[in-house]
């Protein structure tokens, strides 16, 4: 679809069919690791904000085809040891590193380990497995100079307060491309300055591998394109560390590194080999990249790169059981009947919130609505929605109309009603009076084969006997899964492969609550089966550490929160440019993708925020501006169901779960329309047409989407609290874009070379012309052609605000 889908760029999507060369029949523990002193590979039993937003461990790979209900692995099936450490290191491997609040219960079946390095240098771990003895290399960089011993690296890491020079153009994820702001004619504007602390190290560095085959030397040359964060200052000469996969054919001694470039002779390769790299600026380690070198074909491929189709995709999230428009009306047949509507709207991906059997859809008025994020079975669909065959027909209907399907994969936790969790319970207390509570567990069945599939603390909890299961943010409905147990990992991988055969994309709920080691296995399996498959993470706050495992990342703490603040009137619209810039400062590589969503099932409806908590007189106009910003700023845009139909004005809210009880609240109480029923009978035609035209423009434009550069274009306006103007540069094609959050038109002066015809509507938006500027009047959005993009900030001096 669209002009961007057919582009041939710098090779970022070349040879996507190539897969990771490591055989999945092996128990090898996966790719090499890059850390620094002060980091630790740890997998806490609690998944909440108090224990960090990340889990990890070192784990054997599940070999062969995973089984749905595997037998427990013998306790002595795997053994870990440290084969090599830097001089002076006293580091050791363990299961359950010290935890501040409680001690992990150890059932004796863990085959994973955790690790905290204490010296910089090279560590080599050995895993004795049934198939072989495997080695895993860890390269550990020094501790940041401003972090004391015993402190976490994250505690001493620099903040992201610095920004690029005001008015400077930035690439699709924030790379500065000019030195100073300019006025409308391109002259330097006096008084502009960079924000932030120039001496502060800023965010982590980043790199982008670019490999070529050199016929003259019969070797691969791997350039790293190392970049420091904007405003960052390296403590020493920035470096790049290269490591091959330990299970691959490439010996580390055959990798010659000069500066930030690696050379690999083809004579050192018996077959395709993967080379990994991580940047270090003396303070922070950046996200890992990798390249596969194929000596037989003389080609390279990049397993971390998202499929090219994602750069032209608009995602549409459906809160599944609200989509048919009435209680109990949604099933797969009803969803199939709406496929034509979605295709006509112009979207490319349909994301359904969970469709698995779960507790919440069985309750008349569950807290948060029937969200389904508490799976009782990972291999079937909920009976109220239909059958697997019905779901397959829905997927087929989507594919026939050119739509892809995204499956909501929630595997950090399952549900209380899951039969495997129930099998671990020996004795329950009496049924509670609260309809939304579960009985206390008075005794556990430790002989259950599934007992160790769940994270447990050694002691009792407020409700359950020792060793009590832990739950996601303490919610007993959602017991945490134990990714230290290899049988549990196999069960979950079997579910992953089952659904990957049916759909095109996973949205991975609470991705930070699942170890990185497991996501690495998931990515290898799904991309080996389908090179076009996309993995979309939910990590809040967003984290570039997930870039090697996921193609697309939520930006709730950035774009979503900012655009809602703008809709309320709490922030100026140019704050949206700042949040795009922050992606680079936070270390996200240029090749990864972030999602522009104005709302989703966990965040308030933007309209509701603007109306209930803001001061803008027309929330619908603010919503149109917000979605316009999502479509025109760099990122992959997402539309939450019903937004195009003004569901917050016309939809039917769900019943309150706690009527008359002011002491209890939930998502529905906080925002009555967050998960409301769609208003199919009432259609706000102009609002819906705006969405359709906007999405069509997104697909037709060679400039919109994640890849084109973002430029802070020179402009003047008297309404900076309502309006933002910026440029998008795709080389031969350039656009100036103006987004207005006000209830009525606002004017802005743009460079005189800018064309006055809006590319979305085809109308002339010129209000007046002068020698040095063209003044346009914009209702909500204008996308304007321009031969040049004079960079500069905005002049906020008083001017006309209305037309």
Total DSSP E strands: 33
Relative strand content: 15-25%
Q: Architecture of the domain at 309-416 and 483-700, according to CATH?
A: Alpha-Beta Barrel
Number of helices: 14
Low-confidence stretches: 1-23, 155-183, 185-200, 798-803
Average pLDDT works out at 88
Strand line-up across the major sheet: 15-16-17-20-21-22-23-24
Terminal-residue CA separation:
37 Å
Indicate the CATH topology of the domain at 309-416 and 483-700.
Answer: TIM Barrel
Instruction: Tell me the name of the CATH class of the domain at 309-416 and 483-700.
Output: Alpha Beta
Structural classification: alpha/beta
Provide the CATH superfamily of the domain at 309-416 and 483-700: Glycosidases
Categorize the overall geometry. globular
Estimated helix fraction: 10-25%
Which radius of gyration do the C-alpha atoms yield?
Answer: 27 Å
For the biggest sheet, the summary is:
8 strands, parallel, barrel
Give a description of the structure.
The chain has 803 residues and is α/β, with parallel strands linked by helices. The chain has a domain at 309-416 and 483-700: TIM Barrel (Alpha-Beta Barrel). Helices cover 17% and strands 19% of the residues. It is built from 14 helices and 33 strands. The strands form nine sheets. It has an eight-stranded parallel β-barrel, surrounded by four helices. Strands 1-6-5-2 form a four-stranded mixed β-sheet, with no helix packed on it. It has a four-stranded antiparallel β-sheet with strand order 7-8-11-10, with no helix packed on it. Helix 11 packs parallel to helix 14 (685-700). Residues 1-23, 155-183, 185-200 and 798-803 have low confidence and may be disordered.
């Amino acid at each position: 679809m669209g002009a961007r889908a057919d582009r041939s760029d710098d090779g970022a999507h070349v040879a996507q069919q190539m897969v990771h060369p490591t055989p999945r029949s092996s128990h090898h523990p996966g790719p090499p690791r890059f850390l620094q002193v002060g980091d630790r590979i740890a997998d806490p039993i609690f998944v909440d904000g108090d224990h960090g937003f990340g889990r990890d461990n070192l784990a054997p790979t599940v070999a062969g085809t995973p089984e749905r209900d595997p037998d427990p692995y013998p306790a002595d099936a795997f053994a870990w040891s440290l084969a090599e450490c830097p001089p002076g290191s006293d580091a050791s491997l363990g299961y359950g590193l010290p935890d501040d609040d409680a001690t992990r219960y150890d059932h004796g079946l863990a085959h994973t380990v955790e690790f905290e390095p204490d010296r910089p240098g090279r560590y080599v771990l050995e895993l004795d497995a049934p198939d072989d003895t495997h080695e895993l290399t860890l390269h550990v960089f020094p501790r940041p100079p401003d972090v004391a011993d015993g402190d976490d690296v994250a505690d001493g890491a620099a903040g992201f307060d610095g920004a690029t020079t005001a008015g400077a153009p930035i690439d699709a994820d924030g790379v500065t491309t000019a030195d100073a702001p300019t006025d409308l004619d391109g002259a330097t504007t006096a008084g502009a300055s960079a924000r932030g602390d120039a001496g502060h190290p800023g965010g982590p560095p980043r790199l982008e591998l670019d490999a070529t085959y050199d016929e003259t030397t019969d070797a691969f040359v791997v350039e790293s394109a190392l970049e420091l964060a904007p405003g960052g200052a390296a403590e020493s000469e920035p470096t790049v560390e290269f490591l091959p996969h330990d299970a691959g054919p490439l010996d580390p001694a055959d990798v010659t590194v000069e500066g930030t470039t690696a050379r690999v002779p083809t004579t050192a390769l018996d077959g395709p080999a993967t080379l990994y790299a991580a940047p270090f600026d003396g303070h922070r380690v950046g996200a890992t990249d990798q390249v596969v070198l194929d000596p037989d074909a003389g080609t390279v491929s990049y397993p971390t790169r998202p499929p090219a189709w994602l750069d032209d995709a608009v995602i549409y999230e459906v809160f599944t059981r609200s989509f048919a428009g009435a209680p109990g009306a949604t099933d797969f047949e009803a969803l199939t009947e709406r496929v034509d509507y979605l295709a006509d709207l112009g979207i490319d991906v349909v994301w359904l919130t969970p469709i698995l059997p779960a507790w919440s859809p069985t309750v008349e008025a569950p807290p948060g609505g029937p969200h389904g994020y508490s799976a009782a079975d990972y291999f079937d669909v909920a009976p109220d929605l239909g059958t697997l065959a019905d779901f397959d027909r829905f997927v087929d209907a989507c594919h026939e109309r050119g739509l892809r399907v995204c499956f909501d994969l929630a595997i950090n936790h399952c549900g209380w009603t899951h039969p495997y969790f129930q099998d671990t319970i020996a004795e329950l207390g009496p049924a509670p009076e609260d309809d939304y509570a579960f009985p206390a567990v008075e005794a556990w069945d430790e002989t259950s084969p599934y007992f160790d599939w769940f994270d447990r603390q050694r002691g009792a909890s407020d409700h359950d006997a020792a060793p009590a299961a832990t739950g996601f943010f303490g919610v007993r409905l959602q017991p945490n899964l134990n990714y230290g147990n290899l049988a549990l990992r196999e069960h979950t991988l079997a579910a992953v492969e089952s659904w990957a055969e049916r759909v095109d994309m996973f949205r991975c709920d609470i991705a930070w609550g699942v170890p990185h080691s497991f996501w690495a296995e998931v990515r290898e399996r799904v991309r080996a089966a389908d090179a076009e498959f996309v993995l979309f993470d939910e990590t809040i706050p967003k984290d570039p550490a997930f870039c090697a495992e996921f193609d697309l990342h939520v930006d709730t703490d950035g774009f979503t929160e900012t655009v809602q603040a703008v809709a309320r009137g709490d922030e100026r619209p140019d704050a949206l440019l700042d949040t795009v810039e922050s992606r680079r400062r936070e270390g996200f590589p240029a090749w990864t993708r972030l999602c522009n969503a104005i709302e989703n099932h966990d965040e308030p409806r933007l309209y509701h925020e603007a109306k209930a908590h803001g001061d803008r007189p027309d929330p619908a106009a603010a919503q149109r501006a917000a979605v316009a910003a999502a479509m025109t700023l760099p990122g992959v845009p997402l539309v939450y169901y019903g937004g195009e139909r003004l569901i917050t004005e016309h939809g039917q809210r769900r019943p309150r779960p706690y009527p008359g009880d002011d002491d209890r609240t939930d998502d529905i109480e906080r925002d009555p329309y967050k998960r409301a029923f769609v208003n199919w009978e009432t259609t706000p035609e102009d609002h819906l047409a705006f969405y359709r035209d906007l999405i069509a423009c997104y697909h037709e434009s060679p400039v919109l989407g994640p890849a084109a550069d973002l430029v802070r274009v020179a402009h003047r306006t008297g309404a900076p609290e309502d309006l933002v103007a910026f440029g998008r540069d795709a080389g031969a094609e350039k656009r100036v874009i103006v987004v207005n959050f006000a209830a009525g038109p606002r004017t802005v002066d743009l460079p005189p070379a800018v064309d006055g015809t809006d590319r979305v509507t085809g109308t002339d938006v010129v209000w007046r012309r002068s020698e040095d500027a063209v003044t346009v009047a914009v209702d909500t959005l204008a996308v304007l052609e321009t031969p040049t993009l004079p960079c500069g900030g905005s002049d906020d001096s008083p001017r006309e605000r209305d037309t």
